[in-house]
Amino acid sequence: SDHMENIYGYLMKYTNLVTGWQYRFFVLNNDAGLLEYFVNEQSRHLKPRGTLQLAGAVISPSDEDSHTFTVNAASGEQYKLRATDAKERQHWVSRLQICTQHHTEAIGKNNPPLKSRSFSLASQGSANSPGVQRRPSQNAVSFFNVGHHRLPTGKRVPIMQPDHLVDVREMMSQAEGQQRDLIRSIECLPVSGHLTSLDQDLLMLKATSMATMNCLNDCFHILQLQHASQQKGSLPAGTTISWLEPKISLPNHFKNGAAQNFPAEINKPASVREEQTITEPCQLTREPEEINPDEELEDICDDKEDDLGAVEEQRSVILHLLSQLKLGMDLTRVVLPTFILEKRSLLEMYADFMSHPDLFIAITNGTTPEERMIRFVEYYLTSFHEGRKGAIAKKPYNPIIGETFHCSWRMPKSDVATDASSNFPARSPSEQVTLSKDTEGQAELDYYTVKFVAEQVSHHPPVSGFYAECVERKMCVNAHVWTKSKFLGMSIGVTMVGEGILSLLEHGEEYTFSLPCAYARSILTVPWVELGGKVNINCAKTGYSASINFHTKPFYGGKLHRVTGEVKQNMTNMVVCRVQGEWNSVLEFTYSNGETKYVDLTKLSVTRKRVRPLEKQGPFESRRLWQHVTESLRDGDIDKATEHKRALEERQRNEERLRAETETPWCTKYFLKEGDGWVYHKPLWKTVSAAQTQQTDTN
């Protein structure tokens, strides 16, 4: 009670994308349990611009920075606020939490323990907020009465007996039926009028009721396992208590919180009908296609993903989707709304990690194993910044099976770093042999060419393979990645399962590496991306390794996007290089000789990739395959983009079903399965080995 004083002061409040952050004068009214705000202190005697009831609210410090926090009212309304510093944020958060707890407990004490009573998530005071303009007849309380039971005070809950599980199951079945009826009643409401199916309170009621039933089902599942263990003495070996799949199926797409209905086939655009009738991929030629880099043109697309307007407009869709997800749920088979997509395929995103080909080629120019490992770490850490298109967390297209992406980069030889003390020896006769017809006539060229190809080799699980090579420098990288997405509450985590191998054929070295996890944070407000986890880079031949940590932001304080790492010689355990900084800002490299180098990623030059024009691309190349979705997103036509996206996914499901019925295996085009990984069908190390063997036979 000592901390229950009224406090007031200026905070910044996030209004909308147009107005952004604005200073407002806030007052915490502890007696009434209200958080009110005014335009300024002088207007405090006037009616508040907005009011939140704190009973049942959740006060959360944001993980974006040390100044921001959110107040989530039980009505579903949210204030996103920012203090001047971390100390002031903590002052407001602690006082708000104390007030919230006091008034939440007071509600419980003031309501007698009846057998059942009615309640609503709608806050009576929320009507004062400018964001909730509701007539009395519109209040969800007047429409729904949801009963819940409370045990009499002081009555002890008896230990659950085996036969009681049957009673619990019956009660839960009744509750599930009532919950389904509730959702059905809400969704049957009109889309306009006094009380609509898009009412914010009703959407929150749907989300909360669904989450409650999912939680109860999980608890019942755990009780069953405990009961089984009591009967058998212990749980069977290998038994795990895991999250259950949701009982209510997810619609394929959502529009304004409801399942989306698409026009009849005859009304569909010709491009959609074309997407659905492309010949099944395995019936096309699966022979690898040799892409001529001379046919590729410098890319002029610059789709920065900084627009959040659609996300704000489609908030009800996100709430509807979240109401059917649960913690730990695998999102692999969940079709996400179209408006959160960025305008490129995941395969093209992997290519954008190669946007600094000068640093990539410079790896093999290192004169010692130590220098080559350090150069690889420098290149690795600079690749993620350009791989993300803007700071906003949007999701690239999920590649369909058989989808491919090709591109290349041309890098002037004068721009590739070499060691000043190093004079590269002349090529030996065996090294001067022509490796392939791609290199014929390139001896006089003043640039290096890096070629890239990616293919979606599996649909379930979703696995992508990608390969890049620079023939002139005899280096290549081969990788396969399985993306596993999980719902983590207010964020989504993506684990990149797989491995990559960089081969420096001039030195006979292979560097194995992995990729960090990615997280989309604050998915209900302004979503943003951070990387997390530990990755390792190893070269077995030289004995050098690197350990890199991508740090996620702690709950209190700390910096965003922080990364630390070290390179060491395994035999002596001596650290030869340390790195720290932010993977999207400035990196600091400190070497064993005491020298320090800073790399400002925001000023690092980016080499544009070269891509064939759409008319020269095959039907399953990423840009041509997704062109109608991309065009619709650029035009801001979400419904049309959703329709094109649905057509592609529907075709993929039909093809998968047909292959299952005919027991026809999928045939990949560029990558071959080897063990647990996927390898490019014609890697450079095979080409070089074959060329050297041929040269030996000739001699």
Automatic annotation (TrEMBL):
Region span, Disordered: 104-136, 638-658
Biased composition (Polar residues): 117-136
Transmembrane segments: none
Recorded catalytic activity of this chain's protein: a 1,2-diacyl-sn-glycero-3-phospho-(1D-myo-inositol 4-phosphate)(out) + a 1,2-diacyl-sn-glycero-3-phospho-L-serine(in) = a 1,2-diacyl-sn-glycero-3-phospho-(1D-myo-inositol 4-phosphate)(in) + a 1,2-diacyl-sn-glycero-3-phospho-L-serine(out)
Subcellular location: Golgi apparatus, trans-Golgi network membrane; Late endosome membrane
A Gene Ontology molecular function term of the record: sterol binding
Any one Gene Ontology BP term: lipid transport
GO cellular component: cytosol; Golgi apparatus; late endosome membrane
Pfam name, any one: Oxysterol_BP
Domain PH positions: 4-101
Keyword vocabulary terms for this entry: Acetylation, Endosome, Golgi apparatus, Lipid transport, Lipid-binding, Membrane, Phosphoprotein, Transport
Gene3D superfamilies: 1.10.287.2720, 2.40.160.120, 6.10.140.1150, Pleckstrin-homology domain (PH domain)/Phosphotyrosine-binding domain (PTB)
Family to which the UniProt record says this protein belongs: Belongs to the OSBP family.
Function of the molecule: Plays a role in regulating ADIPOQ and FABP4 levels in differentiating adipocytes and is also involved in regulation of adipocyte triglyceride storage. Weakly binds 25-hydroxycholesterol. Interacts with OSBPL9 to function as lipid transfer proteins.
Assembly notes: Heterodimer with OSBPL9.
Protein name, per record: Oxysterol-binding protein
Organism: Sclerurus mexicanus
Lineage: Eukaryota, Metazoa, Chordata, Craniata, Vertebrata
